[in-house]
């Protein structure tokens, strides 16, 4: 069996660390197993009307939130806590959108129209590519400019504004999450200096002794807690949009357990 030092997180030895981390945090992983099953059931039970854009997009967003949740857990249980933060950021973004769109039907068109801005960003990136790469992929500046102008014309005619994460957080009534969790996770996603300090082992003299590397589940609760919280929020958004779910009571039971885990009494 290849060792962790030789193959890193791809080593088969990682299973020993998974078992260790799950054993050290049994209550959290028990909760996670339960709500993951409920989330899967809820996701697969949804039958959005094909002509209802709100139901379709919110359903897709919920599916993405569930898979992000599972990805966060897969990384965290391996002791890849810093890496799981980046995926948690993606889960948070999707939750802002899912909850906002579940509350406001008029945002569906705004959400769709924002694709025009995303297309322009992409095309401008292509315009900035070196000539050799554009030639290899047969990307012509003239064609790109014409496409950009056409899209910009449509944006101007419809007065379409760029869609921001902060705006979605406001519409989702999740501004506290934007002001705290979102800001902190941005530091991890963009590998800012403060987020890199966790990789350094310091001596008492404040000199750097070595690189801290490998499976480490320290502070894993700071990842598992918001991941569970966001899944509960997303499930409520789905339930509200589809006028309730037969799984609501089971989600509430698990939510009560979650509240006890984080030290608050259920409301």
Brief summary:
Helix content is 71%, strand content 3%.
Question: Keywords, please?
Answer:
about 270 residues; two-stranded antiparallel ribbon; 13 helices; single chain; mainly alpha
Describe the structure.
There is one protein chain. By secondary structure, this protein is an all-alpha fold. It is built from 13 helices and two strands; from the N terminus they run αααααααααααββαα. A two-stranded antiparallel ribbon has the order 1-2. A hairpin with a 5-residue loop joins strand 1 and strand 2.
Average pLDDT metric: 90
Largest sheet: 2 strands, antiparallel
Gross geometry = globular
Radius of gyration: 22 Å
Strand order of the largest sheet: 1-2
Number of strands: 2
Question: In DSSP terms, counting alpha (H) and pi (I) runs of 4 or more, how many helices?
Answer: 13
Percentage beta strand: under 5%
The number of distinct structural domains comes to 1
Distance between the ends: 50 Å
Low-pLDDT stretches: none
Strand and helix order: HHHHHHHHHHHEEHH
Secondary-structure-derived class: mainly alpha
**Helix content class:** over 70%
SSE inventory with pairings:
Blueprint: H1 4-7, H2 14-24, H3 26-45, H4 53-77, H5 81-103, H6 107-127, H7 131-136, H8 141-158, H9 165-171, H10 175-189, H11 193-196, E1 200-202, E2 208-211, H12 221-241, H13 248-261
Antiparallel strand pairs: 1-2
């Amino acid at each position: 069996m290849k060792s962790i030092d030789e193959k890193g997180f791809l080593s088969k030895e990682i299973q020993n660390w998974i078992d260790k981390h799950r054993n050290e945090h049994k209550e959290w992983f028990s909760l996670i197993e339960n709500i993951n099953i409920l989330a899967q059931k809820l996701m697969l039970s949804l039958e959005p009307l094909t002509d209802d854009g709100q139901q379709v997009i919110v359903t897709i967003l919920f599916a993405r939130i569930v898979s992000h949740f599972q990805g966060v857990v897969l990384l965290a249980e391996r002791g890849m806590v810093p890496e799981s933060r980046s995926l948690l950021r993606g889960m948070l973004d999707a939750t802002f959108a899912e909850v906002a769109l579940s509350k406001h039907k008029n945002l569906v068109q705004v959400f769709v129209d924002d694709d025009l801005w995303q297309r322009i960003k992409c095309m401008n990136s292509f315009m900035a590519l070196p000539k050799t790469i554009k030639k290899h992929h047969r990307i012509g500046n003239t064609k790109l400019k014409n496409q950009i102008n056409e899209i910009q014309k449509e944006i101007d005619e419809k007065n379409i504004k760029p869609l921001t994460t902060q705006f979605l957080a406001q519409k989702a009534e999740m501004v506290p999450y934007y002001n705290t969790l979102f800001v902190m996770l941005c530091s991890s996603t963009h590998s800012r200096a403060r987020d890199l300090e966790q990789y350094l082992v310091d001596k008492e003299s404040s000199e750097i002794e070595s690189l801290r590397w490998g499976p480490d589940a320290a502070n894993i609760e700071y990842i598992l807690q918001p991941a569970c919280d966001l899944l509960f929020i997303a499930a409520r958004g789905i339930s509200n949009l589809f006028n309730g779910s037969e799984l609501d009571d089971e989600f509430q039971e698990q939510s009560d357990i979650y509240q006890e885990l984080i030290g608050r009494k259920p409301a």
